[in-house]
Amino acid sequence: MKHQNDIFIFHGKLKKHFWIHIPMKYNITKSETGDTTTLTIIPLYKYYSDYVIEIQFVKQNNNMKFITSIKSKENNKKNTNLYYKNIIKNIAMYFTYDLFNGIHNNLDIFYKRGVKLRKISFIRPNNLLSKKNSKGITYRVPLFKHYKLKTKRI
């Protein structure tokens, strides 16, 4: 994914035949109480811009809940094209799966290192992910597992 300010380009391969390149805009908002954080992803391409991906992170006591939804501008039209909606649905599943795995892998690495989890651990995790050996410094980075939709990262 290429990234610039609040716009990034999603590169994906559809059924191993066609590459898609969709520019997307994202916005992160927090609720007033701080319990809910919403990541809104809006495709900027003509046919995909009717759909909006919302990923909500809801904090309840010590639990975190992921809620992914797709909202469309055309709610009651029967002539909607399901092709574009299915692509957006696959992209939403990919983002949710990738975010969940990334958070899980970071927590796993912190647990193995014996680090206390604080907010500062997630702001600057570089020094926690490095491990000093007698040979030098090696970096261990959490790997992301991919969903069915393959991406091309540049």
Describe this structure in words.
- This protein has 154 residues and is an alpha+beta fold.
- It has one domain.
- 27% of the residues lie in helices and 39% in strands.
- Strands 1, 2, 3, 4, 5, 6 and 9 form a 7-stranded antiparallel beta sheet that branches. Strands 7-8 form a two-stranded antiparallel sheet.
- A hairpin with a 2-residue loop joins strand 5 and strand 6.
- The longest helix is centred in the middle third of the chain and has 32 residues.
- The chain is globular.
- The termini are close together.
Topology:
Layout: E1 2-4, E2 7-14, E3 18-30, E4 36-43, E5 51-60, E6 63-72, H1 82-113, H2 119-123, H3 126-129, E7 130-132, E8 137-139, E9 150-151
Antiparallel strand pairs: 1-2, 2-3, 2-9, 3-4, 4-5, 5-6, 7-8
Low-confidence stretches: none
Indicate the percent of residues in helices.
Answer: 25-40%
Please report which band the strand proportion falls in: under 5%, 5-15%, 15-25%, 25-35%, 35-45% or over 45%. 35-45%
Oligomeric state of the chains in view = single chain
Summarize the helix and strand pattern as letters: EEEEEEHHHEEE
Estimate the mean pLDDT confidence.
Answer: 73
Tell me the distance between the termini: 6 Å
The computed structural class is alpha+beta
Count of domains: 1
Keywords:
154 residues, alpha+beta, seven-stranded antiparallel sheet, two-stranded antiparallel ribbon, globular
Q: Could you give a quick summary of the protein structure above?
A:
The protein has 154 residues and is of the alpha+beta class.
